[in-house]
Amino acid sequence: MATRFFPNLMPNFVEETSILQNQHTLVHKTIPKQGTDEALFSLISMPYSIISEKLKRAALDLKETVVVQTCGKQVEDFTLYSGTLGTAFLLFKSFLVTQNINDLQLCCQVVEACDAASLHSRDVTFLCGRAGVCALGAVVAKFLGDDKLLQYHLAQFKEITITSNEPDELLYGRAGYLWACLFINQHVGKETISSAYMGSIVNEILKNGRRFDMKGRSSLMFEWYGERYWGAAHGLAGIMHVLLHFDLKPDESEDVKQTLKYMIENRLSTGNYPTSEEDRRRDALVHWCHGAPGVILTLVKAAEVFGDKEFTQAAIDAAEVVWNRGLLKRVGICHGISGNAYSFLSLYRLTGNAEHLYKAKAFSCFLLDRAHKLMSNGEMHGGDSRYSLFEGIGGMAYLFLDMVESNNARFPAYEF
Predict the structure, then answer these.
(1) Which of 42, 63, 145, 211 is most buried, by the most CB atoms less than 10 A from its CB?
(2) Beta pairing partners, 330
(3) pLDDT for 296-345, tens place per residue?
């Protein structure tokens, strides 16, 4: 198990030095060598205003690298998860942070390339399907004030068919399609995709979740490729997270609540969460896709919706797992340090506790100080798709941009 992550030797909390103290240190002290404990501890003790600027500069440099490596060539993988649309989403985020119109215009061009490449895709989700292309295209067109392009992408989105054979999970199923609908409505306008239409899909998900005979245990359960997963990508955490964004009937709301409480009651003794019902004893994965990090984001949303302190406390407990075992030997958003940092950002947004922000800052500083060297010498995996949003350095760039305005930080393509 220990081989999956770097030991976390950072203090549980470090008070920031004042700006004046920090400036005095920079003037009178030799800057520590990058990659050393001294360099890392120096970064995490910096005032947030200083470190956020460092992260912003690093993010914009990484963004340029991602653009160079993924644009201007034939689109082979159009998806937001591992392909070119992830570059577009990163450019959109960069625009939101910097207001650089060049990022928005380039984002639009990248979406156009992905649009052509995804025309015959049967996948329907935001992360891995045609819905992501059309949804992001519509939103970018809205920001550009291009009504003709907006109507084109909305029309294309509404041509996507959700068949009875679709799974219910986030990456490839109904929940992932609903997330695309919510994204459009957030940025284009309420009821752009009608609540009645989305409600019919929500009902289908709930009907499917209730059909499993759990012998009085979990109210809802779902299957994907023969396994009943718990995590954000394929299972309960991801599906419940999307359902929590809708106005549910009292019995439906109760089913979601009790499903999450079932997960809390049956978490592993370490505080981590199992991968699936079929794998309830193995405690190996501390990822967004499987394990505590993805569950934390859902528990935070549940705490916001239900006002139930049990969900807040469960999220805080799970965050200890991420702090202790979340410095993964991977860089990405899905199963890497970049994604795990959002556990703390989400909790900071919920509680206002500065210790959670510090831990997000610490994970970000670890990446800033060491990721390049660790990937270069093979100690950290750069992702099968090295420049992608969910597996590669695109995700690290996205995290660094989110650290600029931490109160507004949201896990990409998952949190609103």
Answers:
(1) 63
(2) 381
(3) 999 999 999 999 999 999 999 999 999 999 999 999 999 999 999 999 99
Contact indicator for 255, 217 with CB cutoff of 8 Å: no
Q: Tell me the pLDDT tens digit for each residue of 218-235.
A: 999 999 999 999 999 999
Write out the H or E segment, with its range, that includes residue 388.
none
Structure-block tokens of residue 392: 């590669």
Q: What is the pLDDT of residues 351-360, one digit of tens each?
A: 999 999 999 9
Q: Which of 14, 3, 55 is nearest to 37 (CA)?
A: 14
Instruction: In whole angstroms, give the CA distance from residue 264 to residue 237.
Output: 11
366 within 8 A of 359, measured Cβ to Cβ:
no
Residue 71 among known ligand-binding residues: no
Element (H, E) at 268: none
Residues sharing a CB contact under 8 Å with residue 255, sequence separation 6 or more, in sequence order? 206, 209, 210, 219, 220
Tokens of 278: 């079929």
CA separation, residue 327 to residues 2, 109, 200, 216, 337 (Å): 11, 35, 40, 37, 5
∠ CA 146-147-149, rounded to 5°:
70
Residue 1's pLDDT is: 45
| Residue 8 and residue 321 in contact, taking contact as beta carbons nearer than 8 Å | no
Does 334 belong to an annotated binding site? yes
Verdict on whether the full-model pTM lies above 0.85: yes
